[in-house]
Amino acid sequence: MSKSLLSLAITAAVLSGCSLIPDYQQPQAPVAAQYPQGPAYSPAEADPALQQLIQTALVNNRDLRVAALNIDAYAAQYQIQRADLFPAISANGSGSRQRTPARMSQTGEAAISSQYSATLGISAYELDLFGRVRSLSEQALQTYFSSEEARRSTQISLVASVANAYLTWQADKELLKLTQDTLAAYEESYRLTSRSNEVGVASALDLSQARTSVENARVQLARYTRQVAQDENSLTLLLGTSIPANLPSAQPLSADLLSELPAGLPSELLQRRPDILAAEHNLKAANASIGAARAAFFPSISLTANAGTLSPDMGGLFKGGSGTWSFAPQINIPIFNAGSLRASLDYSKIQKDINVAQYEKSIQTAFQEVSDGLAARQTYNQQLQAQRDFVNANQDYYRLAERRYRIGVDSNLTFLDAQRSLFSAQQALITDRLAQLTSEVNLYKALGGGWNEQGSQKAEVSKEAPPLKLF
Fold first, then answer.
1. For 341, left (φ over 0), alpha (ψ -120 to 50), or beta?
2. For residue 164, what pLDDT is reported?
3. Which of 88, 172, 286, 381 could form a disulfide with 227 if both were Cys (CB 3.0 to 4.6 A apart)?
4. Would you state the pLDDT for residue 304?
5. pLDDT tens string 90-134
6. If DSSP states are collapsed to H, E and C, what string results for the chain?
7. Three-state secondary structure of 280-318
8. Rounded Cα gap, residues 287 and 345, in angstroms
9. CB distance 12 to 127 below 8 Å
10. Cα–Cα dist 194/322, whole Å
11. Which residues of the chain fall short of a pLDDT of 50?
């Protein structure tokens, strides 16, 4: 009994050797062989607090949990689809006793009948002669792979988001501290001007101008106090939990927070970026669906078979002569379907073409993001140096204006202008440094989570969990 079913399963497997899936050809990347180089693309220690925050987010962030659960869901769907490649064998045992009343019996006497059976069978197993089931299984497998890359992409985006949120938080705290110090200086200047006004040295206009500086600084103080609180809330949401109480002391924005990345990396590294890999897996899934659509044009054969024993009493269930079997093959030949199968095939081919275009677009977008990041690196370095020089020049201007005002050479107007110019330049320096660091973080994200050097000039994007070496 079991040998016949095993032989049937082996025969089905042998017959299921044909596939109508088109040969997959990876599209050529529609970008240059290397990222741009030149003056704008020249290449330029980890912050322990940021490291801890990133680790916390990787454990607690809810979006990352959803992405991981989606992988499990697609894995289950793939397993369901793959199971159709194999016969479903089931065993069944049953028994029944029935009493027939005398008036319903042919003998005129009441009768009790019994029936017991034990069977082993295959139900509605499709012989995959033209690879339809295997095509669907391949499609589900590639969708599963795509979901894994989507999780990696979510993880990389989370790391970048936490880094940007943390850097914004630190920048706003520095702006808040700068505003507090500036407000204290403005208030002291206002007190001195007020005394000078009382003795007739400073005019009412000088006093009014000094007061406007104080009030403007108070406005800025309220603004940055609010932004720091909102930054903490944003960071808490990304972490999925509260900010750790034992967070190490943060390094100032002026410190070297991010490690350097050399220019001249080959653009083929983009082939390992998660969103590009996900797009390629989607393309392979669309390619497999063409095979399933093609197979639908051909006949399909399903088998239902069982073998077992049947006996009127339990004791004779496995005795000789009680064997029973049934074999019910079914063939389905498509004859007329009003063009439905042809339309399904055309739809599958169109979907593949769409996925090819999406794959190529994802590469082009990634190439632009990396190129923009490399261009921003050197130009931000130049911009920051110029801004530092501008701050130094304003500090000299402020010192000279203050000295000349104290000895009565210049009016209070020049001194107040120097104060405001210095405050504005210092604010811009912090803002520009934040923009530079954010650009570095976005470059990390654009490269698919960082890079690892292999040899003197070779580097490649890590395909494992995003490394934290950039932070």
1. alpha
2. 94
3. 172
4. 83
5. 888 888 878 778 777 777 777 777 787 888 888 777 887 888 888
6. CHHHHHHHHHHHHHHCCCCCCCCCCCCCCCCCCECCCCHHHCCCCCCHHHHHHHHHHHHHCHHHHHHHHHHHHHHHHHHHHHHCCCCCEEEEEEEEEEEECHHHCCCCCCEEEEEEEEEEEEEEEEECCCCHHHHHHHHHHHHHHHHHHHHHHHHHHHHHHHHHHHHHHHHHHHHHHHHHHHHHHHHHHHHHHHHHHHCCCCCHHHHHHHHHHHHHHHHHHHHHHHHHHHHHHHHHHHHCCCCCCCCCCCCCCCCCCCCCCCCCCEHHHHHHCHHHHHHHHHHHHHHHHHHHHHHCCCCEEEEEEEEEEEECCHHHCCCCCCEEEEECCEEECCCCCCCHHHHHHHHHHHHHHHHHHHHHHHHHHHHHHHHHHHHHHHHHHHHHHHHHHHHHHHHHHHHHHHHHHHCCCCCHHHHHHHHHHHHHHHHHHHHHHHHHHHHHHHHHHHCCCCCEECCCCCEECCCCCCCCCCC
7. HHHHHHHHHHHHHHHHCCCCEEEEEEEEEEEECCHHHCC
8. 11
9. yes
10. 117
11. 1-2, 4-6, 8-9, 12-15, 33-44, 452-471
Q: Phi/psi class of residue 306: alpha, beta or left (left: φ > 0; alpha: ψ in -120 to 50)?
A: beta
Q: Nearest CA to 38 among 329, 456, 371, 449?
A: 371
Instruction: Answer for the pair 24, 287: CB distance below 8 angstroms, yes or no.
Output: yes
Cβ-contact 321, 179 below 8 angstroms: no
Sign of the CA dihedral with 347 first, then 352, 354, and 355 last: positive
What residues are paired with 103 via a beta bridge? Answer: none
From the CB of residue 169, how many other CB atoms can be counted at a distance below 10 Å? 20
Q: Which of 425, 435, 388, 413 is CA-nearest to residue 182?
A: 425
- Rounded CA-CA distance 42/261 in Å is 10
Decide the pairing of beta strands 111-127 and 89-100. antiparallel
Q: Going by C-beta distance under 8 Å and a sequence separation of 6 or more, which residues neighbour residue 249?
A: 49
This prediction has a pTM of 0.74
- Say if CB 446 and CB 461 are below 8 A apart: no
Torsion sign, CA atoms 164, 366, 347, 16: negative
Token pair recorded at residue 85: 């490649």
CA distance 216 to 318: 99
**The residue type at 66:** V
Q: How many CA atoms lie within 13 A of 285 on its CB side?
A: 20
Question: Quick one: angle between helices 204-239 and 48-60, nearest 10?
Answer: 50
User: Of 144, 87, 189, nearest to 398 (Cα)?
Assistant: 189
